[in-house]
Write a structure and sequence with these properties.
- The chain has about 400 residues and is mostly helical.
- The chain is about 70% helix and about 0% strand.
- The longest helix is centred in the last third of the chain and has 33 residues.
Length: about 400
C-alpha cells in the first residue's frame, strides 16, 4: 500500500521536472471536480514542468520520445480561433478569451507525465473517487435545500449544475468501463460498480437532460465496443422504469428529453435560431470568441425572455458563430481525427485492460460531444480540461503495448 501511494502521489522518474509534472497531474485530477482555480494552477505547473522535462530529455538524448497526436487539426483550429478574435468587433475582449486554447496542452502533458499504463489506471480510479465525493456533496445540497427540484439542482463545490453533470458524464463512463471489465480484480470491479451507481444517482439528481442524452450515447458506444451489445436492452428498461415509478419532476424531465421544441426546451430553441442568424451574417470567421454576449441583443427573437446570453447552449453552433464555418470545419476535423485514430489504436490493443481503457475514452468523448448538442460544454473549462486528459488514454495504452512485427499506429 505504501509503494502504491508513492507511485500515485509522489511520481516516478529520475528527473525532478518529471516528478513535479506527475504530482501536478494528480492534483489536477483530484481538484478538477471541486475548484477550477486550483485545478488550473496544477495544470500550469504540470505543463511547464513537462516542458522542462522534455527539454532536459532531449539534451540527455533520452530514448523516450514525445507523442503529438492530432497536432495538425488542433493547430489549424488554434490559428482560425486567433484570426477570428483579431477580426472581431472587440479585439481585446475576444483575444483574451482565446487563452482557453492553452487547455489543449493537457492532452500532451498527460502523455508526457504518465510513464506506465498501470499509473494511468490508478489515476483514473483516483478521478472516480474524487467525482464520487463531489456527488455526495451535491446530494446533500439537494436534500438540504428548499423549493422546486429544478431550483435545487446540485453543483457540488462547482459554480453550476451543468458543470457538475458535465464532469459526471465523463467520469461515470470511465467507472462503468472498469465495472464491466473482464480483466480487473474483484476488488476493482466492486469499487467501480459502487462508484458507478453513485455517479449515476448524481446524474439523475442533476435533472440535466443534455447530460442524460450524452451519457446514453456513451453507454451505447461503450457496450458495442466492448462487445456487450446484448445488454443494450437495459437502457430502455431503466428509462421505462423511471417514467413509470420515478418522482414527478424526473418523469417530466425525461419526457421533455426527446421533445426539443419551443414548448419543451423553452428559450433554448429561440437561442439556436438567433445563433443561426448570427452565423449567416458572419459566415467565414464568425464574430470572435466571447462576442455572443454583447451581440446577442441585436439578434434576440420575439418571445425570448432573457435580454442577453453568454452562450447558445449548443457547442457546434457556438463554434460556428464565434469562429465561422472555417472554425467549425477545423473543430469537426479534431473529433473525426480522434475517433479515426482511436479506432485504429483499439484494433492494435490486446483485449485486456488497455483495450477497455481505450473504449472508455472513445465512449466518454462521444458522450461529451452528444451532450454538447444541448449545452455549450466545449466552453466549460472544468469539463474540457478533463476531456483532453481522457483523450490521451488510448495513446497511453497503445504506447505501452508491445508492437506486432511491422505494426505502426500513426499519431497525427
Amino acid at each position: 500500500m505504501k509503494k502504491r501511494f508513492k507511485a500515485v502521489f509522489l511520481g516516478q522518474g529520475e528527473r525532478l521536472p518529471l516528478r513535479v509534472s506527475q504530482g501536478a497531474l494528480v492534483g489536477f485530477l483530484v481538484l478538477d471536480p471541486f475548484s477550477i482555480s486550483l485545478a488550473q494552477i496544477c495544470v500550469t505547473i504540470g505543463v511547464l514542468a513537462a516542458a522542462a522535462d522534455l527539454i532536459l530529455s532531449r539534451r540527455e538524448n533520452a530514448k523516450f520520445s514525445p507523442q503529438w497526436p492530432l497536432w495538425l487539426p488542433f493547430s489549424v483550429f488554434v490559428v482560425i480561433t486567433v484570426l477570428s478574435a483579431l477580426l472581431s468587433q472587440d479585439v481585446v475582449r475576444s483575444f483574451m478569451d482565446t487563452k482557453q486554447l492553452l487547455e489543449i496542452l493537457i492532452l500532451y502533458w498527460a502523455l508526457r507525465a504518465i510513464p506506465a499504463f498501470g499509473r494511468a489506471r490508478l489515476l483514473v480510479q483516483l478521478l472516480i473517487l474524487a467525482a464520487g465525493v463531489m456527488v455526495i456533496v451535491g446530494l446533500f445540497q439537494f436534500a438540504l435545500s428548499e423549493g422546486r427540484p429544478l431550483a435545487r439542482r446540485p453543483s457540488g463545490t462547482l459554480s453550476i449544475y451543468q458543470t457538475f453533470s458535465g464532469i459526471l458524464v465523463i467520469v461515470t463512463l470511465l467507472s462503468l468501463s472498469q465495472a464491466l471489465s473482464r480483466t480487473a480484480s474483484p476488488r476493482e470491479r466492486w469499487f467501480a460498480g459502487g462508484a458507478t451507481l453513485l455517479l449515476i444517482l448524481g446524474l439523475l439528481f442533476s435533472l440535466t437532460r443534455g447530460a442524460w442524452v450524452g451519457f446514453g450515447a456513451g453507454v451505447i458506444l461503450l457496450l458495442i465496443l466492448q462487445r456487450r451489445a446484448r445488454w443494450l436492452w437495459v437502457l430502455p428498461a431503466i428509462i421505462a422504469l423511471l417514467l413509470l415509478a420515478g418522482p414527478r419532476e424526473l418523469r417530466v424531465r425525461l419526457q421533455h428529453t426527446v421533445l426539443f421544441n419551443e414548448e419543451a426546451s423553452g428559450e433554448r430553441v429561440l437561442m439556436w435560431k438567433a445563433g443561426l442568424q448570427m452565423a449567416r451574417e458572419f459566415p467565414v470567421l464568425g464574430v470572435g470568441t466571447d462576442m455572443v454576449k454583447p451581440l446577442y441583443p441585436d439578434y434576440r427573437l420575439p418571445g425570448a425572455k432573457r435580454p442577453t446570453v453568454g452562450h447558445l447552449h449548443n457547442s457546434p453552433l457556438q463554434v460556428t458563430v464565434e469562429r465561422g464555418t472555417l472554425g467549425l470545419a477545423a473543430w469537426i476535423w479534431i473529433w473525426v481525427s480522434f475517433f479515426a485514430l482511436g479506432t485504429k489504436t483499439l484494433k492494435n490493443l490486446p483485449k485486456g485492460p488497455e483495450y477497455e481503457m481505450g473504449t472508455a475514452s472513445l465512449s466518454a468523448v462521444a458522450a461529451f460531444l452528444t451532450a454538447g448538442l444541448f449545452e455549450y460544454n466545449f466552453g466549460d473549462s472544468e469539463v474540457v480540461m478533463l476531456i483532453y486528459f481522457v483523450m490521451a488514454l488510448p495513446f497511453i495504452a497503445q504506447r505501452h503495448t508491445p508492437a506486432k512485427p511491422g505494426q505502426r499506429v500513426p499519431l497525427s
